[in-house]
Structures are given as C-alpha cells and as structure tokens.
Design goal:
This protein is α/β, with parallel strands linked by helices. It has 15 helices and 16 strands. The strands form four sheets. A six-stranded mixed beta sheet has the order 2-3-1-4-5-6, with helices on both faces. Strands 8-7-9-10 form a four-stranded parallel beta sheet, sandwiched between helices. A three-stranded antiparallel beta sheet has the order 11-15-16.
Length: about 400
C-alpha cells in the first residue's frame, strides 16, 4: 500500500473508532449468499459457497457482539434482473446487511449499484470483472478472491513469454468475455504477441463447433477461452474432438479452475496452464480447511471461490464487531479496508482503497493422469506471484482512488 493510501486508511480508521463508541448493532446480522445454485457456475460456487459462508459464521462463534448471525440463500439464475429483485427484497424487507459471492459479472455490477443505493455491503467473491475496482467501483463493495486481470496475467505471462505470439479469442458474449479481452490486449502487446481474431459465443451453449472451426482456421498458436463455468470444459473437450490440440494449437483457458479440470478429465486437460488464488493442497492450513469443508460437502474439495467466501465473510464479521455497526454499509467497508486481512487460506493481506483485496496468486500446470494420486489431486504449482504483482495497479477510473 502506498503512502497516500495509508494516510487515507489511517484517517478512516480514526473516524471509525470514534463512531464505534456510540454505534450499536440493531437486531440480527444477516448475510445473503447470492449465486448460481443449479447451472453452469454451480460447481465453482453454488451450494459450496453456502457451506463456506456457514463455516465462517460458525468459526466466528455464530454471533457478533451478542447478536445472532443469520444466512439466506438466493439463486440469481445468471440474470441481472432476477438478482436485482432478490437484492432489493433482501435489503428492503428481510434486513440483509451484506450479500456475498455473486458469481456473474453483469449480475455483480447490478447488485453493487443496489448495495450502494441502499447503503449495504457487497462482498463480491465470485464475479471477475475489473470494472468493480475501475469505473464501476463503489464505497460499499469489496472485491475478494480474484479478478480477470489477476487470472489472465499469470497464464498469459507463462505462455506468451515462451514464444506463443499469435492468439485467437473464443469469448463469451457477456461482460465477462468483454472484460477478459480488455485486460488481455495490453498484456499480450507488452509481451510481443497479438490477437489475430475473436469470435463470441452465447453463455451456456452446448455446441461450439462453428466457433472452434474459425479458431482452427486462424492458425493461431493459442486459442484463448475468455469465459468460465461449464462452457470451459465443453470447449476444451470439443476442441480435442476437432483435433486442435493434436494440430499443435495450445488451449489457454483464462478462467479455468480445479472443477473445470475434473470435468474435462486429466487425459485431455493435462499440461494446461491455469492461474488461481487458492488450491486446497497448497499448505497445511489449506489442507486442514479442505478436510473440514469436505466433511460438510459430500467429500468435495473447496474451490478458490469457496475459499474467498469464507475469508471475506470472516473479515466482514471482524469489521462489524470492531465497529459495532452493521446498518451503515459504507462505514463497515471502510472498517474492512482499515483492518489488515488475516485468515488461514489467503494469509496476511490488505484491502486497497478501491476495494480490491490483495494476496498472492498462483500459476499451476494440470497433472498427467500418472502423476495424480487421487480424484482431487489435479494441479502442480509452477509459480507464486507475490501480492504486490498479482493484481492490476490502482485504476484512476475508480473515483475512490482520487476521492476516497
């Protein structure tokens, strides 16, 4: 954190401490997990995020300064209008103080606007758009886990830095795809690589044949998938059927994760480079958490987004406790920024003035089948990106950077 940011955060902390002498939590503290519970993002987020949020609540003790913590669950169906209806009802009628997860960029932008309007809190641990810390930043939103810049940066550096100089983008026709392209272009240009073509596909489409044929005919060395969820697994599998990998074209899944690797299968996915913020087998702390998580979630290991939900909820509850306030969303977010983050999954970190939580990122290579020792043993750690390099520098498009 630079000197100017430290001064701002220090001043905010002084104000928060002064307020805490008279602030008082009124009633229960209510959190709402809002995500895709049943569709293409359900494995990455879905019910697992609910488990992670409840674990954070339980580990905190189930109460904040004597007030019970309640948890609601909503399915936004990947529709911003549905998400907006749920968010407004939660804030206006059900007393929700903070919404967490929100695993869709267009949905997250809509909910962030409503949280600011209602002076509540959005703990975005699921959507990756960098607009949340750019032109659409908000004093009521924290952006945890990762984002498109962080996700893309490690993978592009690992591949383009080793001769992969022509890229074709297969991008989802949504804010997620547009933002991934925006973040990728300057990175590729800096490394001397170029984008030779782009095609956009509709979210959750079953047939990628026409898009893959265009990618194949481009002769690009790398086919970049700018999308997420089950679409990634379907594209990689169908690319194999069309012989793209066999023909020498590399697949760069810019937002692929452990669950995608398992859906694809190691025989097809082996050798893929992916970047993530968390892996269950990183260290003793992550393994201990994963064991507890699996006991609650049918033996499944947590994804990075599940880890992000846990860490964000835990930090939020610490801030509410320190402030003794849950109703004033801006004050709670300011308190979260003033306090260093500290949890067993991401370690020590901080939240910048723009709302971005800072921690290391990791570059992994998908294991070959012979290297795997079990169903969830799918990744080898190649590189650790330090926290001061892992995320995009402060964006002047965010008004909080100049006027916190």
């Amino acid at each position: 954190m630079n000197a100017a940011c430290r001064i701002v955060v220090g001043a905010l902390l002084a104000v928060m401490l002064a307020r805490s002498a008279t602030a008082e939590i009124k009633g229960d503290v209510v959190l709402g997990v809002l995500n895709d519970e049943t569709s293409l993002f359900a494995d990455l987020h879905g019910p697992g995020s609910v488990v992670a949020a409840q674990m954070a609540i339980d580990d905190f003790g189930g109460k904040v300064n004597g007030h019970p913590i309640r948890l609601l669950v909503g399915d936004h169906q990947n529709k911003p209008d549905v998400a907006a209806q749920i968010a407004r009802k939660w804030f206006d009628e059900l007393g929700v103080d903070a919404i967490v997860d929100v695993d869709n960029s267009a949905v997250a932008l809509a909910v962030s606007t409503i949280a600011r309007e209602k002076d509540r809190v959005l703990l975005d641990t699921g959507a990756n758009t960098n607009r949340l810390t750019g032109d659409a930043c908000s004093p009521n939103t924290i952006h945890f886990t990762l984002d498109n810049w962080a996700d893309i940066h490690g993978s592009i550096t690992a591949m383009a830095g080793h001769g992969a100089d022509t890229w074709f983008f297969l991008s989802v026709d949504s804010e997620t795809g547009y933002d991934m392209e925006r973040q990728s272009r300057p990175m590729l240009e800096k490394l001397g690589a170029r984008i030779v073509g782009t095609v956009r596909y509709p979210l959750n489409t079953p047939d990628f044949s026409s898009y893959l044929l265009k990618a194949q005919s481009s002769k690009a060395k790398v086919i970049a998938i700018a999308g997420g969820g089950q679409d990634v697994a379907n594209i990689v599998k169908q690319a194999r059927e069309f012989g793209l990998q066999q023909g020498g074209q590399q697949i760069a899944a810019l937002a692929a994760y452990m669950t995608d690797v398992r859906a694809i299968g190691l025989p097809v996915a082996q050798g893929m480079i992916i970047t993530d913020a968390f892996y269950w087998d990183l260290n003793p702390q992550t393994r201990a958490f994963a064991k507890r998580f699996a006991e609650r979630f049918k033996g499944r290991m947590p994804t990075s987004y599940h880890a992000g939900v846990y860490a964000a909820v835990l930090h939020y509850l610490k801030a509410v406790s320190a402030l003794n306030e849950a109703d004033d969303g801006k004050a709670v977010v300011a308190q979260m920024k003033a306090m260093p983050t500290d949890d067993p999954l991401f370690g020590h970190g901080e939240i910048r003035v723009d709302g971005r939580a800072i921690h290391p990122m990791y570059v992994f290579k998908v294991k070959a089948p012979a290297e795997s020792k079990g169903d969830w043993d799918v990744l080898d750690l190649l590189d650790t990106i330090p926290e001061d390099q892992a995320f995009k520098p402060l964006d002047p498009a965010c008004f909080l950077v100049k006027h916190p």
